[in-house]
Amino acid sequence: MNLQSLFRPKTMAVVGISKKNPLSPGRIIFIKNYFEMQVEVFGIHPEGGEVEGVNLFTKIEELPKVPDVLVIAVPAKATLDYVEQCADYKIPGCIIISGGFAEIGGEGVKRQQKLIQIATDNDIAILGPNCIGVYSPPLLDTIFMPTERITRPPKGSVALISQSGGVLVDQFFHKFNQIKIGVSTAVSIGNRAVVDETMLLDYFSKRDEETRNIAFYLEAFKPSKSRDFLQLARKSEDDIIVYFGGLSDKGKKATQSHTASLSGNEKILQAALKQNLITQPFTELELLTDLKLLDVLSRKKKPFDPNTVNNGNVAILSISGGHGVICADLLKNYGLRAVDFTQEEQQEMRELVNPVAKSISTFGNPIDLTGSAKDEDLEAIITYLSNIKRVECIIVLILPYTPSISFQIGRRIANTVTISKKPVVCFIPYIPKYGAITEALELSNIPVFHSIEEAVQGVSMLKQKTRIFNAKRSQS
Amino acid sequence: MNLQSLFRPKTMAVVGISKKNPLSPGRIIFIKNYFEMQVEVFGIHPEGGEVEGVNLFTKIEELPKVPDVLVIAVPAKATLDYVEQCADYKIPGCIIISGGFAEIGGEGVKRQQKLIQIATDNDIAILGPNCIGVYSPPLLDTIFMPTERITRPPKGSVALISQSGGVLVDQFFHKFNQIKIGVSTAVSIGNRAVVDETMLLDYFSKRDEETRNIAFYLEAFKPSKSRDFLQLARKSEDDIIVYFGGLSDKGKKATQSHTASLSGNEKILQAALKQNLITQPFTELELLTDLKLLDVLSRKKKPFDPNTVNNGNVAILSISGGHGVICADLLKNYGLRAVDFTQEEQQEMRELVNPVAKSISTFGNPIDLTGSAKDEDLEAIITYLSNIKRVECIIVLILPYTPSISFQIGRRIANTVTISKKPVVCFIPYIPKYGAITEALELSNIPVFHSIEEAVQGVSMLKQKTRIFNAKRSQS
Lengths: 476, 476
Hints:
Two copies of one chain form a homodimer.
Chain A: H1 4-7, E1 11-15, H2 25-36, E2 40-44, E3 50-51, E4 54-55, E5 69-72, H3 76-89, E6 93-96, H4 107-122, E7 125-127, E8 133-136, E9 140-141, E10 155-162, H5 165-179, E11 183-188, H6 197-206, E12 213-218, H7 226-235, E13 239-244, H8 249-259, H9 266-275, H10 284-297, E14 313-318, H11 321-333, E15 337-338, H12 343-352, H13 355-360, E16 367-368, H14 375-386, E17 393-397, H15 409-420, E18 424-427, H16 435-443, E19 448-449, H17 452-475
Parallel strand pairs in A: 1-2, 1-5, 5-6, 6-7, 10-11, 10-12, 12-13, 14-15, 14-16, 14-17, 17-18, 18-19
Antiparallel strand pairs in A: 3-4, 8-9, 8-11
Helix pairs in contact in A: 3-4, 6-7, 10-17, 14-15, 15-16
């Protein structure tokens, strides 16, 4: 099957465009792609005419070229006829937005079986039905929400595949946009009658140049396909993340009603994911932290080797005692530990800082340089820590509210880390006026988080990434 | 001791104003209050003259009136002389920003003992030393960070008391400002040589009209004062929240070095707090959720009685299956449960929604009205759920990305809840364009959170609040 036609089409046609209702899904998809995206798009309406000043064709036959993909947003009963036309005209891909298939039971189940039959017989890559489609910037966007209602994430390295359309556009799109996690392609798989998560893992892992990390929101694996999925994940060169919803009893009941699927035993599932080198976040925050870190570290210019955090031994550098305490408290929850410094090391660090800070700083771990610290003190201590072999990663808590820290601190830390090559994860409060500092760090691809907990999660992710990297290397 | 002089002074004097360094703490405090706050402020410098165009006095004697509070930001050695002058001139309150006391050991310990002696002999309310002071909008702000470097929370019902200055201005001020939690007064207690957390609990609980909720960041109780603190908390009519930092082994070590205090056994502490009707959040997110909820529900116009969530029985209302699943998964983690609906109730709810949604919605718990839901469907179901007695609280997951939901949805839910009086907690994504919906809900004092987890935490907080309310009522 030609999955590329779904995600990297040159031409696209849309059926199900209402002339009366500007908010009908088909019309939103058509108009949005026509005015906002790069794909060449054709609208089809049996009567022809126009919507919003754009001409419509009356049927597929009339189109100037055979499109790579047909988006179907007509009522369920009319869908199969269009799928058959895909076969007739050799359209390789088809995205079915329409609901009214297996999820409603009865006749819907039969309709879905027929759909699978046509797809299989004619080798058509069908996404859906009952899905919200594909977002593949800057090419196409079949998410049928009005542009003014949603936010869209930037371009990046993460292929994002979701069994829930709502979770995709809200939990992912909004937050990806807010904390700037970039996607290569985002896919809503709906009922996954034909194209399922395993095929997509295969495709994005082996055949999509832009993808480096593949993230899934699933409520259950497609029956009989979990084994293939796990094997593919284990062998993939990309980082694979699977976030499962519906693992609690109530959650399970809910997923049964809205996706007609069963999730397996939680513990077995957890073990299987771990064994097959898949990262499983347990909270949404963990998922976002993972993806933020992976996306930043997938860029070409790497400030450090992310696969060197074998044991999770951390140094914490702060200019506020309380922040250091909160950070130290969190390490244990994430399987990390603070390195102990010898008296000699502590004395050596003390000699590196300005006279005022020198007399009041503490060099245990967390290191607290106090509100008297200057930019160069942070630089000097980061460089010193980078040379201690048992320090695998440094968490720098940047608090640019004291006047002795300048707004060049981001650039200066970035320069220091780029030279020292030691993994560094930064925390900086999420405030617009600190944006310049965050930007300077992110330009050098140094991971920046906006809560202490996320910074700690980020380091635990580096540890996990190192484990998976080593396991994959030893098996190959 | 006259604590009011520290938090509600009419006049204030500042010593330690540098003429050379515009970023010296004393000068920042003087200039900030002079230009930005309501308190009448006098600057003192032995040479007189002016800074930034504002005249300075040469000594306390020269001031036109005896100030209510003296802010001391001179080097440690010079502090005691000024404290003695407070005694001489009957200045009732004193805020000592300067470090160089017990926290540095040796002579610092002796200096602090002398300070306590003078304060006790002369009944002076001394805050600090080694603190960053008081923020009491719109009256005074002795936080010595430049205004352009920090953010400040709005005015509200929460008295905020922190043992760490850094945590106060970063973790609290920034986040309070971001999610709009209002403070009555924020206090950094530093070494708490004289004024300590127990005295502040007493003061804010009994003598401050503006405070309804009292939140603490502590790394340990002041030795020998924990018993008083707990007893006062138990009897207080306000909600008391204590967030402890430094409970892990590494955290403990760190707090010893930066505050010279010991935290007790974690389990004993936890039990003591619970028994004395104090809320103890275990993560920063939980703390913020608690305070947001308490601040909103402290306002005069209450949309519902917050003390009715006895068992934590919840109904989840969503228009996205995946969101409902994630929410249901989270309930268990927070000691809550989803109410089961009878077949009859489910059928009755189905009859209430529009024909398209009717055919595809599911009315288990979570209720999923699907992307076809309209504003009036949400109103109808909220009203229906409000009449089911065993539903103690409704979580409404508002996802205004579907075109069939209008931007009036906030106002409409607010109206419905104001009539039905059932506790409701809303989730809405944190996106500027949804601000109008959030505003409409918050104007009616309905709690709104920006992640599903926070909404669930919010309900668990209502359950906790109900428990504490009932216990306090039965003891009085």
